[in-house]
Amino acid sequence: MSDSATSRPDASDAADAAGTVWERLARAGFVALGVLHLLIGFAIVRIAVGSSSGQDADQQGALRQLAQAPLGAILLWVIAVAFLALAAWKIAAAFGSGADAKETVKSLGNGVVYLALAFLAASIVLGAGGGSGDSSAQGFAGTLMQAPAGRVLVGGIGVGVLAAGVWHVIKGARQTFLEDLRAAPGGELGRGVRILGTVGYVAKGLALAVIGVLFAVAAWQADPDEAQGLDGAISSLRDLPGGPIIVAAVGVGFAAYGLYAFARARYARL
User: Fold this and answer.
1) Can you give the pLDDT at residue 142?
2) pLDDT value of residue 12
3) DSSP letter, residue 181
């Protein structure tokens, strides 16, 4: 048998092995997502009960908390690589054969989000992620408002984020998130996954809706300081009548989403 004939199976085996490693790294991205949501959920609950440690209840705050842990820098690099692998997988799926327009937009959007999280984790470990999510939102809104029709752009972003929040709530309530799983587990485990996903998506949707409203208010009042990230949205909820109870429920929901993300690492349809 010729060398070229024997090399073809070897090349195929190497490609399969590389694909398996890539898939495992991508699934590790869901584990990283779960860890972040658990930490954010705990931070939100602490805000609800008035015992906040000063940690921002957002992705930056969670990543900074991890950076302060033993071997924190190594942990953040692992998280960055996992998110990068998941982003690459989603972006590749967006342009893969057989993807319809809806799947393309969904996969591409998810890929951009995971890519941003990978960049955020890397920037924090490199010491370049010092700003809070709220200050970033205000700076972003302020920059847009200086452009022609800037208020319209900021308002449009607000409406878009509000729509994303409503979509999350509907996805949770109807449990259509189960379509993202290749095979949902059965029995009590499956029931637990459905409950965690429902609570998690609804809580995330509520938080996104508040962020969207705050961006819309910033556009209406031409005041970029009204724009807030997740931490500011939680503070706004806490100021409402019954706010601490609402905030505590949102915190529990974020933690539930974190646990659901662990299930996605095993059962997600990639």
Assistant:
1) 84
2) 55
3) B
How crowded is residue 68: how many other Cβ atoms within 10 Å of its Cβ? 8
Contact indicator for 181, 260 with CB cutoff of 8 Å: no
Instruction: Return the sign of the alpha-carbon dihedral for residues 13, 15, 19, 25.
Output: positive
Task: Enter the tokens of residue 25.
Answer: 């790294």
User: Model pTM?
Assistant: 0.86
pLDDT, tens digit (0-9, with 9 covering 90-100), for 27-84: 999 999 999 999 999 999 998 887 766 677 888 889 988 988 888 899 999 999 999 9
Residue given tokens 């022609």 in the structure block: 148
Can you tell me the distance from the alpha carbon of 92 to that of 160, in angstroms, rounded to the nearest whole number? 25
**Average pLDDT over all residues of the chain:** 86
Reduced to 3 states, what is the DSSP secondary structure of residue 175?
A: coil
**Greatest CA separation found in the chain?**
79
Torsion of the alpha carbons at 195, 24, 107 and 187, rounded to the nearest 10: -20
Look at residues 40, 132, 42, 27 and name the one whose alpha carbon lies nearest to residue 81: 27
Per DSSP, 180 falls in state G
Q: What is the pLDDT of residue 226?
A: 84
Degrees to nearest 5, angle at CA 49 with 199 and 175: 5
Q: What percent of the chain has pLDDT over 70?
A: 88
Phi first, then psi, for residue 185 (nearest 5°) are: -65, 155
The pLDDT-based confidence of 146 (bands split at 50, 70, 90) is confident
Residues 6+ apart with CB under 8 A from 21: none
Q: Is 126 helix (H, G, I), strand (E, B) or coil?
A: coil
The distance in angstroms from the start CA to the end CA of the chain is 38
Which secondary-structure segment (H or E) carries 137? helix 133-145
Exposure letters 201-211 (e unless 16+ CB within 10 A, then b)? bbbbbbbbbbb
